[in-house]
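Hi,

I'm pasting everything inline rather than attaching a file, because the server keeps stripping attachments. The sequence lines come first, and each chain or strand is labelled.
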Amino acid sequence: MSRADFQKRKTFQLLPRQNMAGPTLGAVTMVMSFLACLSLGAAILVGIAAERWLARATSAMTVQIIAVDNLQAEDQLKAVMRELSGFPGIEKAEPLSRDTLIRLLEPWLGTGNVTADLPLPLLIEVIPEPNVVISTQALDVKLRAVAPGARLDTHGRWRETLDRSAQMLKLFAGFVLLMVGLATITVLLFATRAGLLANQEILQVLHQIGAQDRFISRHFEFHFTRLTLISSAIGLMLAIIVFYGLGDLIADARDPNFWAWLLPVPIGFVVLSWLVTRHHVMRNLAHMV
Amino acid sequence: MIELENISLRYEDGPPILHDVSLHIEPGSFHFLTGKSGAGKTSLLKLIFLALRPSRGKLSMFGKDIASLSRTELPEIRRQIGVIFQDFRLLNHLSVYENVTLPLRIAGQKELDYRKNAVELLSWVGLGDRLMSLPETLSGGEKQRAAIARAVIARPRLIIADEPTGNVDWEIGFRLLRLMEELNKMGTTVILATHDKKIWEQIDHPRLHIADSNLERITS
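And the predicted assembly:
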């Protein structure tokens, strides 16, 4: 056999790349990585959406002015606006036009049913400065002092319901993520063990011809970690493709920063695979003399 | 070279496989290990090639008490023992050349340093034209010769063969016997386990016979 024949050989692989365990373990790892990425991504997106709803809901307030005694609503408007513009922490206060009010009532009264003589209250939309907590009680007292028909509405009940719903949704997403995580760990444990069992004879032969435990373990660790890295990275890529496809519905799903949050999945898979392989090989070798 | 002192062996709560066996094997000797199937030949060989530990007694290999050695010291002892398994135990994803040179690779030798000798050895055992073949394409005799080449390539001080003629026809078995004789003449200690009378009658060497958990040395 010539030198050229030796050079034509494939690179030496102590463990077979293609055997019964390889494709099966690879496929299982890829699917579980895909599912774990989807669950983690969904949990993150639900979290972002819930935070956003809450931020919007908590910031919005309205002031309602109705006619009292001899004072029409319009008569009280100036004083209320003056009070609002002087109150610390308020970015914007804007009275809603009669047209906007009619539009808001349409779902209840029907289109065209609001007649000109129907008494409508005056509504002022109040937007606080971002990240500022306003003393709503103090504001309410001040408004009532200058305009007896003014009422501050902080949408407390609606906000509480939304807050509870958002927390429930986040909790549910977290629970699904936890379940998928547990299933993933279990499947990965069994799949890696099955892969190792398929290569058991190699382990025994290497041990018998005088290989040190560390030498054997290092080769098995490299083989299985590499396989897991490739498969779980494919799972991540597939999940990113799915999230990209959802981009029209959820803009955050196309954000590369959001994708970066999914990276712990393949990294976790690789670490887990490495630990399982090392533990299994060392334990097997410990049973041998 | 090999020293067994009052060795007993049993698997968990089973009956004793070996009972109070003592044995001394001189360097450069050739022994047959005989006994009925299930008598304990393979168990004794496993003790000697360090795949099993005795339940009782003292085992010394190459002047070292095995019980006193640490786990990291044992591979060095194993590298001095070439084992030919009855089922060959070749790795199916590696070529004949890669299988045979595996002990050298594990010992950390560079391929360029051993390639020439390995090719010569494979030619000597008649596998010069099958270097890059995979084991599953080899005949029974070729597999056996590859297993022998793997067992001897690192120039072990001791060769152990467990029923090496069990899976091949008589002619190949006889050739194997001659090969073992050649290696023995070059100074290698040989222990060959067989239950086949035709084998041990071919050559005049002492026989270690196992029966009823005891070992008896028979010289003709």
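Chain A has ten helices and four strands.

If the labels don't parse on your end, tell me and I'll reformat.
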